[in-house]
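Question: Now follow the chain.
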Amino acid sequence: RQGELAESAILVVHGELVASVSTPDGERVVGAAGAWDVVGETGLYAPDQPRSATVRATRDSTALLITHQLLAEGRSNPVIGAIEYHLLHTITRRIRCWINLFTYRG
């Protein structure tokens, strides 16, 4: 939930999640996530920061909860390594999108 401290990320396996933020005018949807998308990944790498949005499933969904413990204990597991690579790729892609947005805004 928006404002709570982040302790995990979610990897969507099946279904759809929607992210929304509270504004003075009510809830505003700011994004959606489908199969193999990740939400909440910043919480794994900046756990002292509050969540920026609330995420809810819009239909039946299956997801993998990724915690600090899972990543720490699975360092030698290639599957966990692939998940962490996917998390870092997601963060990098989002940073590039924001840079492009502000660079070409004029």
User: Anything to note?
Assistant: The chain has a mean pLDDT of 89.
